[in-house]
């Protein structure tokens, strides 16, 4: 490497540094270009399809478990029991946003669209337990016990209705043979 190549390298370094500093100076001096945002007081305007925290509308949720099956990091957990009307009833629905990677697969697969992304992104915490979102505030054991009582009551009503129907059939069957001989007597010529 000669003196000429050495000087060319120095000139090239000065030229590229000057180009970079020109861009930096333009952004640093231009009052129209706002780069810094005073965060707690000012917030970025989020895009329309921003994928923030997850929210489940438990009134619409059918407990199909599709979101649990599709989640690649297993951050969604739910428990459900079959109710008296043969539909699934949610006993608990939790999302661990500390594990969630906000991929949106669970939202895409939800058949009733009860699971959605919100625009929330602030959830600083010193305890990991605070990062678990509980959507059903009643204890799962209490929900299961309540649903079991409802199922038992429905079964008792169904058994009572079946017993009444059997009694009505037996009464109709008892009346039918007694009426048949009388009809036979009336139909015979004497």
Low-confidence runs: none
- Terminal-residue CA separation: 142 Å
**Mean pLDDT across all amino acids:** 86
Please state the overall shape, judged from the principal axes of the Cα atoms. rod-shaped
Taking strands numbered 1, 2, ... along the chain, how are they ordered across the largest sheet?
2-3-5
- Largest sheet composition: 3 strands, antiparallel
Name the structural class: alpha+beta
The SSE order reads HEHEEHEEH
Binned, the helix content reads 40-55%
Task: Supply Rg.
Answer: 36 Å
Strand proportion, as a percent range, falls in 5-15%
Number of strands: 5
Helix tally equals: 4
What features would you describe in this structure?
Helix content is 45%, strand content 13%. The chain has helices at 3-29, 66-70, 105-109, 140-187, and strands at residues 54-56, 76-82, 88-96, 115-117, 132-134. The model has no long low-confidence stretch (mean pLDDT 86). The chain is of the alpha+beta class and 190 residues long. A three-stranded antiparallel β-sheet has the order 2-3-5, covered by helices on one side. It has a two-stranded antiparallel ribbon with strand order 1-4.
Secondary structure topology:
Blueprint: H1 3-29, E1 54-56, H2 66-70, E2 76-82, E3 88-96, H3 105-109, E4 115-117, E5 132-134, H4 140-187
Antiparallel strand pairs: 1-4, 2-3, 3-5
